[in-house]
Amino acid sequence: MIGIAIEYTEKVMDHFMNPRNVGEIPDADGAGTVGNQVCGDVTNVYIKVTDGRISDVKFKTFGCGAAIATASMTTELALGKTLQEGLAITRDAVADALDGLPESKLHCSNLAADALHAAIKEYMAKN
Amino acid sequence: MIGIAIEYTEKVMDHFMNPRNVGEIPDADGAGTVGNQVCGDVTNVYIKVTDGRISDVKFKTFGCGAAIATASMTTELALGKTLQEGLAITRDAVADALDGLPESKLHCSNLAADALHAAIKEYMAKN
Amino acid sequence: MKRIYLDHAATTAVDREVVQTMIPYFAETFGNASSLHSFGRDAMHALGAARQTVADALGAETGEIFFTSGGTESDNLALKGVETGHIITSLIEHPAILNTCRYLENHGCDVTYLPVDSGGLVDPGNIESAIRNDTKIISIMHANNEIGTIQPIAEIGTIARDNGVLFHTDAVQSFGKTETDLQKMNIDMLSLSSHKIYGPKGVGALYVRDGTEIEPLMHGGGHESGLRSGTENVAGIVGFAKAASLAIERFESDTRHLTNLREMLINGVMDTIDDVHLNGHPTKRLPNNVNLRFDFVEGEAMLLHLDLRGIAVSTGSACSSASKDPSHVLLAIGLAPENIHGSIRFTLGRENTSEDIEYVLGVLPEIVGKLRAISPLVSKGSSRGSSSG
Amino acid sequence: MKRIYLDHAATTAVDREVVQTMIPYFAETFGNASSLHSFGRDAMHALGAARQTVADALGAETGEIFFTSGGTESDNLALKGVETGHIITSLIEHPAILNTCRYLENHGCDVTYLPVDSGGLVDPGNIESAIRNDTKIISIMHANNEIGTIQPIAEIGTIARDNGVLFHTDAVQSFGKTETDLQKMNIDMLSLSSHKIYGPKGVGALYVRDGTEIEPLMHGGGHESGLRSGTENVAGIVGFAKAASLAIERFESDTRHLTNLREMLINGVMDTIDDVHLNGHPTKRLPNNVNLRFDFVEGEAMLLHLDLRGIAVSTGSACSSASKDPSHVLLAIGLAPENIHGSIRFTLGRENTSEDIEYVLGVLPEIVGKLRAISPLVSKGSSRGSSSG
Ligand SMILES: Cc1ncc(COP(=O)(O)O)c(C=O)c1O
Ligand SMILES: Cc1ncc(COP(=O)(O)O)c(C=O)c1O
After folding, report:
1. Do D100 and D189 fall into the same domain?
2. Which residues of B fall within a CB distance of 8 Å from D315?
3. Residue D119 sits in a domain of what CATH number?
C-alpha cells in the first residue's frame, strides 16, 4: 500500500478529478473486467456497439489515481471508434494521450486498455 | 599525539603561562629526571638543600600544558620545605593545589612529583 | 490553499525554537568536538549539554546516550551490535528492525517473528515461550508507526530481565507521546529519532544501559566512546536535544491536545461515512494515530484527493518507500489485502487545531462518495455508494 | 580577542550561503521525501536537485550518488559493502578506513597495509605487486588529512582497473582542493564529507560507479535505492550540495588563495624559527596543509599557547580523539616518536587572510622560544634555545 512519491501530468490530474464516462451500461453489448481487488486495482469497461462502432462506453474503477485516469482516457479514446480501432488502442497510446505516466504507474495503464479489449472481444464472440 | 578536548583550571593556566622556578641549577645538591622523549614528557627537577630544607628548586619540562603546570606547582610547593615534607608531596597534592586536572591528564602530574622525589633521594644518598 | 499536515508519523516540521537553537552551531560554534582548541571545546560543551538533556529526558545517565544518524541507524546498531544468536521480535516492527533481522538471518542469527492480535498487540506469553537458551535479545517496538498500537513494554521488559535476555525497544514513534520509564520497563536499549519529535532529520540516539556490551556498526575515530565513529553532528544533536526537552516539557498538554483531536477525527468520520473501520487498537493507541479503512475505495486515490485539498496523509509507512505491497502491519493484524488497500493513516501533530479536523471532516465524505461512485466494488443499488454525510 | 581558525582539516564553518540555503528545509519544506503528498514531493524534489548537484560536481550520474551521514559512514560502506576477500590499503589512511580494515580482518578479510615514503607517497609499484587472485578492493585516500600528501590516484586507478579490482578513494580532504576526475582516475567508489567543505556536519556521500555491486550497511525502509536506509536528511543534503557546488565554483580562486597563504606560512616560519621541519611532501601537497615539526617542544603545549592567542591548530587528526599515541601518519613517514611530539598542523581555509598568517607569524617565534626556554631537551649553551626571530 506504499508508493514512492509520484507526480502526474495535468491531463492525468484532470481525468482523475473529472473522470469521463463513469458508470455501468446495464444492457451493454460487451463488458470486460480486468484486475482484482487483492492487487488493489479493478477496472470494468462496458460498451454499446452501433454500426460496428463503439457508440457508448462506460467504466468503473477501484484503483489509484493513474488507474482512474487511464480508464477515463481509454473510454474517451474508444468512443466512436470502430471495433478494430478500439482493439488498436494500446496501453502506450493511453499513456501518451495522458502526456505520460510515472514509471512506477505504467502497469496501471494496462488495466483499462485490457478491459476495453475484453469488452470488444466479448461483443465479437457473441456476434 | 592526539588528545580529547581538555580544559584546565585557572591555576593550571596560570602556571602554564607563567611557570615559576624555571631553569637548571648547575651546582645542584640533587637532581631528578623522569619521563622520556619517546613518550612525549620529560621533567628535570634540581634542588639546593640548606639546613635540611629545600632552599632552591628549579625545573625544566618538555611536555604538555599539564606537565608544565604541575612541574611549576611542584617546585612552588617544594620550596622551603624539609626533605621529609618534600618527599610527602604527592601527585594528588600537586593536582589539588592546581584545583584539579582533567582525568586524561592525571598521569602528567606524576612526572614532577616523581622528579622531585628523585632529586631529594639523590641528595640523601650522597649525604 | 489551506495546507493541513496530518502525516506526523512520517516526519515533523522542525519546531521554530529548535531551529533557532541550532543556527549558531553552523557558522559560529562550528568546531569539531574532538579538537583541543577553544572552537573544539565550545563544540564539546554543546555536545555535552545536549547529551545531558537527552539523558534527562529519558531518565538515563549521559554515558548511556549514543548519538546516531537516526532511528534506522539506532535500530541497526542495537541488533547488529549484539552477539550472534537467537532474536525475538514481532511481525509489525518497522523495516529498520525487520530488514536488519532478515540480514542477520543470513549472518548466523535465528529470528522468531511473533504474531500480533487484531489490535496489533504482542502477547507477552508468546515472548516467554519463544525464549531459548541461545536467545540474545528481544526487540519489540514501543508503539507502532502505522496503527499506533502501544505494546505492554513493562511486561515484556520483565520477562526479558527474568530470563537474562537483552531487551531493546524502538521508541521512535512513542517518545513524547506515551510514558517511557527505562527502569520500570527494564529497557536495556532504546532507539530514538529526532525528526519524529519536531527535531532535525539525520539525528537520533540509542540508549544503551550501562554494562550492556554492544559492538559498533561504524568504525573510525572512536567517537561516542568508540560505539559510533564519525564527527559529531553538533548542530543536529543540539537541535535534537532541544526537541527532546520540549517533548518532555509539553508532554501533558501535547497528549491531551492530540487525544482530543484524535477522538474528534475518529468520531467525526464514523458519524458521517458508512463502511469505515478503525485499524489497530481501540484504546492502547498513540494519542496522534488514526488509521481508518474505507471500504470500496483505494487508498492512494483518496490520498491524492486529500492532497488536492491540501491535506497530507499517508497510506502506510512512508519510510518503506520502495514497496507497493500491502502493509505488513495491516496484514499482521489479520486484514485481507483487498481490505488493506482502502486504509489511510492520519497522524496528528502539535500544531494541528480542531479547525484542521473540521476541515478534514468537511471534505472527506465528498471524496469518499466520489470514489465510491466510480468503484465497481460497490454493489449495484447498494446504499453504500454514497456517504451519508 | 582576534580568533583565527587554522584547523580546516578538522572541520569548517558552514558557509553563510549554505546556511541560508538550508533553513527553509527545517520548518517549511520539511516533508519526508518518501511521502506521496505535496509536502513529500517538495522534499523529493529538493533531494533530487541536491543529488544532481553533487553528481555534477563529481562528473557522475545521479544514480551513482548515495547520501550518507558523513565521511566515516561512506568509508565503512565502501569497504564493508564489498564481498569478503583481500583488501589493499595504506598505513596512512584515516581511522575510518584503518579501523574498518581491522574489523574486517576479524571477519574473514585479509588486509595489506602498504608503507609510504618519507613524503607520504604510496608507491604504485607496491600496489601492483600486492594484488592477489582474491584481491577485491584497493582503498587509497586521495589526500591525507594530517600531512596533505596527494597520492598518484590516476596511476593507482589504472592498476586497479587493469587487474579487475575495485578502486575506492577517500576524497574527504581533497574534494574542492585538488582535481578529481572519476573517469581518468578510474575511481569506482569515492567518499565525501560535507563538513570539510563548508557544509553541515552529519552528511556525506559515497559515489559508487554504475554496475559496482555493494551491500548496504544499514537496513530498513530501502532509501537511497536500498543502499542506505533511513529518512533522508533533506536540509543537510541540500546544504551539502550547495557547499559542493560552491567548492567547484570557487575551485580556482580557493586553491590559488590557499596556496599563497600556505607558502607564506611555511616560508615565514622557516625564516623566523630555527630547527623547524616540514612534515609531508614538499610539492604533492594540499594547498591548505602546513604540518610543521618544531624540535625540543611538545605540540600540545604549543597548541595551548596558540589557543590563548586565539589561533586554532591541531596536533594531528582531531577525528582520532580518543588516542594519545603518536600519529600513525607521522610514524609511517618515518619519524621517531620523539620527533612527532613537536608537530603542529595548520590547515587553512577560504576565509583566512594574509593578515591572519602575519598574526600567526608574529606570535609563533615567541611561543616556541618560551617553550624551548623551559625544555630540558635543548642542550645547555645551544643557540637553539631561543628563536632567531
Ligand atoms: C518505528 C520507527 N522506527 C524507525 C524509524 C526510522 O527512523 P529514521 O527515519 O530516523 O531512520 C521510523 C521512521 O522512519 C519509525 O517509525
Ligand atoms: C580523510 C578523512 N576521511 C574520513 C573522515 C571522516 O569524515 P566524517 O568526520 O564526516 O565522519 C575524515 C575526517 O574526519 C577525514 O579527514
Report:
1. yes
2. 1-3
3. 3.40.640.10
Is there a catalytic annotation at residue A64?
Answer: no
Q: Tell me: the pLDDT tens digits for C244-287?
A: 999 999 999 999 999 999 999 999 999 999 999 999 999 999 99
Place of cell 498487540: C121
pLDDT classification of C319: cutoffs 50, 70, 90: very low
Whole-number Å distance between alpha carbons of D172 and D170: 6
Give the domain ranges of chain B: 10-126
CATH 3.30.950.30 at B10-126, yes or no: no
Q: Which of D72, D73, D233 to mutate to test the pocket of ligand 2 (most atoms within 8 A of CB)?
A: D72
For helices C251-272 and C234-249, the axis angle rounded to 10 degrees is: 70
Question: Do both D140 and D262 map to the same domain?
Answer: no
Q: Which of D8, D73, D331 is nearest to D217 (CA)?
A: D73
Residue listed under C-alpha cell 576524497: D171
| Ligand 1 interacting residues, C-beta cut-off 6 A | C 70-72, 75, 94, 96, 141, 145, 170, 172-173, 193, 195, 204, 319; D 230-231
Q: Do C375 and A24 touch (CB under 8 A)?
A: no
Question: C245 and C260 share a domain?
Answer: no
pLDDT in tens, C157-193: 999 999 999 999 999 999 999 999 999 999 999 999 9
Ligand positioned closest to the Cα atom of D231: 1
Judge whether C205 and D85 are in contact, CB under 8 Å. no
Half-sphere exposure of D62 (CA within 13 A, CB side): 10
C-alpha cell at C258: 492530540
Query: Which structural domain, as residue segments, surrounds residue C243?
Result: 16-249
Contact C36 B6 (CB under 8 A): yes
Residues of B in contact with D299 (CB under 8 A): 1
D384 within a domain of the structure (yes/no): no
Residues of chain D neighbouring C23 (CB-CB closer than 8 A):
19, 23
Best probe residue, ligand 2, of C47, C67, C231, C234 (max atoms within 8 Å of C-beta): C231
CA angle D103, D104, D105 (to 5 degrees): 90
Whole-number Å distance, alpha carbon C44 to ligand 2 midpoint, is 18
Q: Is pLDDT of C368 > 70?
A: yes
> Which residues of chain C from 368 to 387 reach within 8 Å of chain A, CB to CB?
373-377, 380
Q: What is the pLDDT of residues B103-117, one digit of tens each?
A: 877 777 678 999 999
Residue C345 sits at φ, ψ, to 5 deg, of -105, 125
User: How many beta-carbon contacts under 8 Å exist across B and D?
Assistant: 85
The residues that bridge with C166 in the sheet, in sequence order, are: C137
Number of domains in chain C: 2
What are the cell numbers at A103?
514509471
Q: In the numeric block, which cell numbers belong to residue C325?
A: 505491497
The torsion of the CA quartet C90, C93, C96, C101, rounded to 10 degrees, works out to 10
Is the same domain home to D88 and D25?
yes
| Residue spans of beta strands (DSSP E) within chain D | 4-5, 65-68, 86-90, 110-114, 135-139, 166-170, 189-193, 204-208, 276-278, 289-294, 311-312, 343-347
Tell me, yes or no, whether D382 lies in a domain.
Answer: no
Q: Are residues C210 and C283 in the same domain?
A: no
Helix (H) or strand (E) holding C203, with range, is none
Within 8 A by CB and 6+ apart from D296, the residues are B62, D275, D342, D371, D372, D375, D377, D378, D384
Instruction: Say if CB B21 and CB B70 are below 8 A apart.
Output: no
Pocket of ligand 2 (CB under 6 A): C 230-231; D 70-72, 75, 94, 96, 141, 145, 170, 172-173, 193, 195, 204, 319
Regarding whether C182 and C304 lie in a shared domain, the answer is no
Counting beta carbons within 10 angstroms of the beta carbon of residue D152, is it exposed (0 to 12), middle (13 to 18) or buried (19 or more)? middle
Q: Is D200 helix (H, G, I), strand (E, B) or coil?
A: coil
